[in-house]
Design goal:
The protein has 78 residues and is mainly beta. It is built from 1 helix and 4 strands; from the N terminus they run E-E-H-E-E.
Length: 78
């Protein structure tokens, strides 16, 4: 298990700001989940972590490894 760190991540879809400078850390062994209403960015954040979307700004780390621009099949995230 690895830690996941999100640092100031921003994601846009055209004129829509879906994720605005989000930062959070999920430490090794923590049980973590996202809650919120429809359209608040939960799925977008998960797709960013998995590598299916690329952020316009910020970075995503697995432990100390920057995976922001790593392909989904090379992240070992499931």
């Amino acid at each position: 298990m690895v830690s996941v760190t999100i640092e100031n991540v921003t994601k846009r879809f055209g004129d829509v700001l879906a994720i605005d400078r989000v930062s959070l850390e999920v430490r090794k062994g923590e049980f973590f989940f996202l809650l919120g209403p429809s359209g608040c960015g939960k799925t977008t954040l998960l797709r960013l972590i998995a590598g299916f979307y690329q952020p316009e700004g910020g970075r995503i780390l697995f432990d100390d490894r920057d995976v922001t621009r790593v392909a989904p099949n090379e992240r070992n995230a499931g």
